[in-house]
Amino acid sequence: MELIRPDINLDFVGKRKLFLLVSLSLVILSVLVLFSKGMNYGIDFTGGTLVQVQFKKQINISKLRASLKPLPLGDTVIQNFGSEKEFLIRVQKSSRSTKGLESNIKIAIEDNFGKGSFKVRRTEMVGPKVGADLRNKALSSMFFALIGILIYVSFRFRFRQALASVIALVHDVLITVAVFAFSGKEFSLPIVAAVLTIIGYSLNDTIVVFDRIRENNLKSRRQGFFEVVNMSINQTLSRTILTSGTTLVAVLAFLFLGGEIISDVAFTLVVGIIAGTYSSVYVASSFLLFSYGRNDTNKKK
């Protein structure tokens, strides 16, 4: 099945400077967002206790905050979880036991809303040292994933292709994480798994384009490298759109129909798929061309 003819000749690399400028602007904006706003780390990384409560009828969140204010909970964040009936109560760096904290919260809510007006759906606790360790391991996993990709692509192609691939992946991760930070959503271990999924997904798209560039470079003796790259992107465009489009439809279904538990992961994947598809077409191939220099783009590689 082909949405676009393989012999189409859209000038992608001819506009590479414009799109690289757009990408550079997005990366700089992403870095500014991360430094200014920061990440809303979940208890997986900060440590603390999370209590999820569900009421039988809709209540005002400000009234819930007022009911818990007398308790010596320390830094506490209370927010809606999908509806006006369900809430997440995060108590950061609490030294209390999980059962003791849950019991105190239940008593305070019962005193204000009545016994049997709600139920505790889950209680989770992570120590601060464990949270810091998980955060460091999450960052290490992404770093070593990029190093592994650099080595793998260097063996399969050349170091220039590997470097272009890693630059495109860093571009995707930065934009995805920055959009996630800007949204104020909680950054947790499932989100790290989603980011690693994006790295693999985006790399697959880039490898398909680079593989076609290598094939065409061997076949097309009369064409320069500039024309070979542009032709290869056009030939794989239908596959790129079909793959990304079908994946995006599935992820959007999870985002809008999958409920609150999976919505943040789905949101991350939606942003990552869009960024990864864009970088496979414009960023990776453009950096590959720039790595050869102006005088070499019309020569065989």
Write the CATH architecture name of the largest domain: Up-down Bundle
General shape = elongated
Which band does the percent of strand residues land in?
5-15%
Poorly predicted ranges: none
What is the structural class? alpha+beta
Total number of strands: 6
Q: Helix segment count?
A: 10
Rg, alpha carbons: 24 Å
Can you give the helix content as a percent range?
Answer: 55-70%
- Helices and strands, in order, run as HEHEHEEHEHHEHHHH
CATH superfamily of the largest domain: Multidrug efflux transporter AcrB transmembrane domain
Number of domains: 2
Going across the biggest sheet, name each strand in turn: 3-4-2-5
Distance between the termini: 31 Å
What's the rounded overall pLDDT mean? 84
Give the CATH class of the largest domain.
Mainly Alpha
- CATH fold category name of the largest domain: Multidrug efflux transporter AcrB transmembrane fold
Sketch the major β-sheet: 4 strands, antiparallel
Description:
This protein is an alpha+beta fold. It has two domains: 13-42 and 130-296, Up-down Bundle (Multidrug efflux transporter AcrB transmembrane fold), CATH 1.20.1640.10; 48-126, Alpha-Beta Plaits. Helices cover 66% and strands 11% of the residues. It has ten helices and six strands, in the order H-E-H-E-H-E-E-H-E-H-H-E-H-H-H-H. It has a four-stranded antiparallel sheet. The chain has a two-stranded parallel ribbon with strand order 1-6. Strand 3 (76-80) and strand 4 form a beta hairpin. The longest helix is centred in the C-terminal third of the chain and has 33 residues, at 260-292. The two termini are 31 Å apart. The model has no long low-confidence stretch (mean pLDDT 84).
